[in-house]
Amino acid sequence: MTKGHQGHLNGVKMALRILVGCKRVIDYAVKVRVKPDKMGVVTEGVKHSMNPFDEIAVEEAVRMKEKKLASEIIAVSCGPQQCQETLRTALAMGLDRGIHVEISGKDYETLQPFHVSKILAKIAEEEKVDIIFLGKQAIDDDCNQTGQMTAALLDWPQATFASKIEKNNGDLMVTREIDGGLETINVKLPCVITSDLRLNEPRYATLPNIMKAKKKPIAKKSPADLGVDVSPRQEVLSVEDPPVREAGSIVQDVDELVSKLKAAGVV
Amino acid sequence: MFSAAVISRSSKLHQLGSLLRRFQSTLVVAEHDNESLYPITLNAVSAAKQIGEDVSCLVAGTQCAKVAEEVSKIAGVKKVLVADHDAFKGYMPEALTPLLLSTQQQFNFTHILAGATAFGKNLMPRLAAKLDVSPVSDIIGVKSPDTFVRTIYAGNAIQTVKSKDKIVVLTVRGTSFEPAETSGGSAGQETVSADVSNELSSYVGSEIHKSDRPELAGAATVVSGGRGMKNGENFQLLYNLADTMQAAVGASRAAVDAGFVPNDMQVGQTGKIVAPQLYIAVGISGAIQHLAGMKDSKVIVAINKDPEAPIFQVADYGLVADLFKAVPEMTEKLKA
User: GO annotations under biological process (chain B) (predicted)?
Assistant: First the structure.
């Protein structure tokens, strides 16, 4: 029998507590536009949704609860008021409750993994969680940092780019996607896991679950409540469009293609 | 008059730039498998040289003397720091981070870099958090010792950021920096050590996909297949074409998700970023996420039966055709 918050996966009673980070980002299918002042991209009036990697993290946490490995799963999102929609999505997928760390205006524009990891580490300690699930990267800033930084701040092991998670006595055995193939590591609990695309196929929230999610609690906090300073550590000097490729041409057949490639000196 | 003033201003800036560079000391964390150095490290050394003239390299591993020897010959590397310890098996970040912190305490580098590979992405943010600094991921350019260029939104915008931190932790996109010469250097070696016992994590094993073809990220020619390949067996058509051209074979996410090929072949925002001389996209529609991984290729060819496929908008040469006819025909014609 396990006591306290530190559950043993092979124990009789499972009591793992899980924290999942959910970022609200511009939808992956949207073609972003750079602002005329070249200081960012246009976000107003643009479709947003949960970062696809975070959906996978949410799904994995829910599956652990369904397997009776986890007792409570908490969703957290840092950002403006609209992040509550992202949290509701996570709750509709099966998470138990949400924490919204409200950050808006200038502070949100300059918010970075540096700050988010401090917030997550603080919440993880307050909530006594055993696993923090995050996406491997957000598809807007493409940083791929938050999970690793959170693990460092807590001095917990990290299993990044996870494509498979299995219990291994009291530890977790995680298969990671690395260059050239796959790698398996063993991590002790508590730990931080970041999801890769192939970890699972996230479920769609059903209408009854969306309705139920409306009743689930979302607590509101500020970075100050958590003692986290959100002053910027980097200054964005400019955001610009990438160079546009010259329009190419359509070739009629393979012969023409091969001769053009030969002329260009690439074959 | 005006242009003379501009020239004099820019040359002053240039002098200031090289003066600044002189005071930077950069550490490159070498990526290797204890037998040989991974090429990405050479690109990272080039980026380090653009930041500062004093470039050191850290080789941490288990019986990595051979790699340390290799690193000491890289042109521009002044010093090689070697850390050999059983705890570095599998290069776990929980073991490497304390080593890096102790090395940093000893040498006070202004910049610590690694390639933006699975290894570098895993390790460097953990180090940055321990140093209480904000890392900069996957840089494609160095403007000055504190100002870097990187892409955001799957390569659809280019961001220039200035770091306010005293120590700058970076990962470097390999395709954006020329590899440093592997000979001509004669760096001295120095042993570094730290208390590196790691109780938190352990390496169990790996499954590396063996291939005789060139490595995807560094290949001069890449042939990639997408959903249009229909199944894994049909990828043989691409392997045949690739072998004719000494090319590497890549894939779109759709092809990987459908199980046609292993995930380490994925090119794109969340897979590998390539910039070969020639990229041939076969049966790939050209989603934003795929373009993020290949649109800096010098020449792009698209073979697709759908003339509306977005890939044609970035292709230098587009062929609207059935790939099952066009690819074998192309293989034959290139053999001839």
Answer: fatty acid beta-oxidation using acyl-CoA dehydrogenase
